[in-house]
Design goal:
Elements lengths: L12 E9 L2 E9 L5 E7 L6 E2 L12 E2 L1 E5 L8 H11 L4 E2 L7 E2 L4 E3 L15 H13 L18 E2 L2 E2 L1 E8 L5 E9 L22 E2 L3 H15 L9 E10 L3 H18 L11 E10 L10 H21 L3 E3 L2 E3 L2 H5 L4 E2 L1
Parallel strand pairs: 6-9, 15-16
Antiparallel strand pairs: 1-2, 2-6, 3-5, 3-16, 4-9, 7-8, 10-11, 12-13, 13-15, 14-19, 17-18
């Protein structure tokens, strides 16, 4: 049974630590790999990324597998959350062995951040090592194949998408070969997820089926509301879309890096514009390696690549639809549901 989430890739777990209230609107999300780790890669296309340990994922370098990936709010300050995840992994004896003692390990924990500073009102309220530890402990405590909370949770707590509230979304697909491909996305985009002419979410135009467009009166009311809040909010200076795309296929690091790269197409379908100088758009790829690719030739990877982009697009749509409105000291961001309800979508 699948739950249409990243956790449909067997062995992967997701944990959120959400920090809201008292000037806070931020958090951290951790993707925890199974024991023994997962092959990992990354593709960074935003011009203003905030990342940690991404060089270790280069296929030319020695690290083959990682035990966790951290997505966090707090801009570069929030990367400190990875320290809490490293400490927890060390206690479990998980990481790269660097000595004869089983406890002599160095966990490699790639991380990327989104800019949400001040969104709760307090610029200094940001994730730290304790937040990262709480998120990885939540992941470890979850059941195999558990549903993943979406919307304003974890790294998506303070996320925005243009003038809309953003958040966390996830989706999965099972290919004819039996291979599972899935994604988890944090939508905190400088670009828009919303077609200004129709009110439909860009990502829904690529999901197949018939798109239901909002009624004109609903769209006009939404446009007035967005113009109203835009005049109140400071323009977001640094925004980012982060994703983890994963599969149970047996991939090399080079193949995983290709999957991370093509998954950016899924962002480009759902967010316009993307990959600008003030974006930090980053996609991590994980491959657990429990299922062989169907076919002996190199083109067997194509179906996985195509599915990776598709599930990223769906995850972005789900993130925006799951998000709730925010009206607080740091700004006002209506949700898509508040503006449009169920007036658009797939049918």
């Amino acid at each position: 049974m699948t739950v249409d989430a990243l956790t449909d890739v067997a062995g992967l777990r997701v944990g959120h630590a959400t920090r809201s209230g008292d000037g806070r609107l931020t958090g951290t999300t951790v993707v925890l790999a199974p024991e023994g780790g997962a092959v990992a890669a990354v593709d960074v296309r935003g011009g203003g990324p905030g990342t940690k340990e991404t060089d270790a994922l280069d296929p030319r370098n020695v690290v083959q597998k990682v035990d966790a990936v951290v997505l966090t709010g707090g801009s570069a300050y929030g990367l400190d959350a990875a320290s809490g995840v490293m400490a927890w992994l060390e206690e479990q004896g998980r990481g790269v062995r660097v000595g004869p003692d089983p406890g002599h390990v160095v966990p490699v924990v790639p991380a990327a951040c989104v800019f949400d500073l001040g969104r709760g009102g307090d610029f200094r309220a940001r994730p730290d090592a304790a937040t990262g530890r709480a998120a990885v402990e939540a992941a470890a405590a979850s059941m195999q194949g558990a549903a993943v909370h979406e919307g304003c949770v974890g790294a998506g707590t303070g996320a925005v998408a243009g003038q809309l509230k953003g958040g966390v979304g996830t989706a999965s697909a099972v290919l004819d070969s039996g291979v599972t491909v899935a994604a988890l996305v944090v939508v905190n985009a400088a670009g828009s997820v919303l077609d200004p002419e129709t009110g439909v979410l860009y990502g829904e135009l690529f999901q197949g089926g018939r798109v239901r467009y909002p009624e004109e009166r609903v769209h006009e009311a939404a446009r007035r509301r967005l113009a109203e809040v835009a005049s109140k909010n400071a323009p977001p200076p640094l925004n980012t879309t982060l994703a983890v795309v994963a599969t149970d296929a047996d991939l090399t690091k080079a193949q995983a890096q290709k999957m991370a790269g093509t998954a950016h197409d899924g962002i480009a379908r759902a967010v316009r514009p993307v990959h600008l100088l003030h974006d930090g758009d980053t996609v991590f790829a994980l491959a657990t390696g429990t299922r062989a690719l169907d076919g002996a030739g190199p083109l067997a990877l194509n179906d996985v690549l195509a599915a990776g982009a598709d599930v990223v697009t769906r995850a972005i749509v789900r993130a925006v639809r799951a998000a709730g409105s925010v009206d607080g000291p740091g700004g006002v961001w209506p949700s898509y549901g508040e503006l449009y309800g169920e007036s658009s979508g797939q049918r």
